[in-house]
Amino acid sequence: MKKIIVIAAVIASMLLVLLLASGCKFGQNIAEKIAEEAIEKAIEKDSGENVEIDLEDGEVSIQSDDGGVDISADDETVEIKSDEGEVAIGSGAELPEGFPENVAVYPDMEINTSWKSTENDKDSFSISGTTEDAGDDVFAWYKDKLSSWNIEGEFTMSGDDGKTSTLTANGEGLIITIMVIETKDEGTAVVQTVIQE
Known about the structure:
Layout: H1 2-22, H2 25-47, E1 51-56, E2 59-64, E3 67-73, E4 77-82, E5 85-90, E6 110-119, E7 122-131, H3 135-145, E8 150-159, E9 162-171, E10 174-183, E11 187-196
Antiparallel strand pairs: 1-2, 2-3, 3-4, 4-5, 5-6, 6-7, 7-11, 8-9, 9-10, 10-11
Helix pairs in contact: 1-2
């Protein structure tokens, strides 16, 4: 089922972009119906499951016997939500719903990707973003914010292209991994993962 939803989400996202770009309401309505039918038939043929696709005003909803997925897009962000979690991609991405308030997030980072998933009633979160700040400064900020947590591991690797620093800590029922990647030409990227224990 996950494979089907992923395939449908990719197809529907591409069609959604085409529909939004077309601008013509009448043509858009016809294109929506054709796209809905084509996607439904392709998924049903491949999976043997009954699915319903609904493309409307920048949103796609896919429903099957096992659950559903909703996809929405605007000029900055694509969001995908299902019963198993959510993901946001783009310059307008924000912290995922339910992100633990006791977990610090670097304040001068623009979030580009965020996701949340739930398995066995435990949430996992991940965000990634960029900042113009030096990687060493960002990593030192995270080390300070996590100083009261149990630091399980710390690793730094340098090369000709830049430096990568990783920190894993646990505390307050959470496991946190921070990865700070500084390149010579492209600034600093941060990947932060939070998992409930």
